[in-house]
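Supplementary notes for students who missed Thursday's class. We covered one full example, reproduced here. Read the sequence, then the structure, then the short commentary at the end.
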Amino acid sequence: MILDGRPYGKEVARTSRERMRAFLGQQRREGGRYSEKFARCKLRARALAHRRNLEGSLNMIVLPVTLAAAAAAAVLNIWLGLRIGSLRTALKVSVGDGGNEALQRRMRAQLNYVENTGFVLVLIAAIELAGRGGGWLSLVAAAYFIGRIAHGFGMDGGKAQAGRMVGTILTLLIQLGLAVVAALTAAGVV
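Structure (token representation):
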């Protein structure tokens, strides 16, 4: 019986016996003397080696910069959410912003973070998958998250308001730079 183009049941046994006979015939033609038992072992060893080779190639894709950046992104998003939660608790506002400007600013800081971080992570992953990553990509990711922390504090206003501008400029420059590197990589220039 054949299901999905592959042998099944007795058909599997028959095809493996045919492969073994073909292997033994080849060995005899080449002058080798192998027992039938040894031939079965060699066929199994070849199949296992092929399977290990396939599994190994699938497990080789590891993106350390992307993984570290994604972890940092999650932690930073949690931190921004906790800042909103603590202010909500202090103001006794459960839903919405209650008309409070400080809460609006913190909510907007987190939303702005979420709006931009997805693009940065996708660009980092794409560049790293293309084999163009490295130490420089780690530094760019670190600069992005430092800028986002500065933006989070800057959105509170007061003395830290300069952080908002620093974070915005860093975010825009990093997104633009990563987009240019990704485009040049796709075009085969770099």
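Commentary. The chain has a mean pLDDT of 83. Residues 64-187 form a domain with the Four Helix Bundle (Hemerythrin (Met), subunit A) fold (CATH 1.20.120.550). If anything here is unclear, bring it to office hours.
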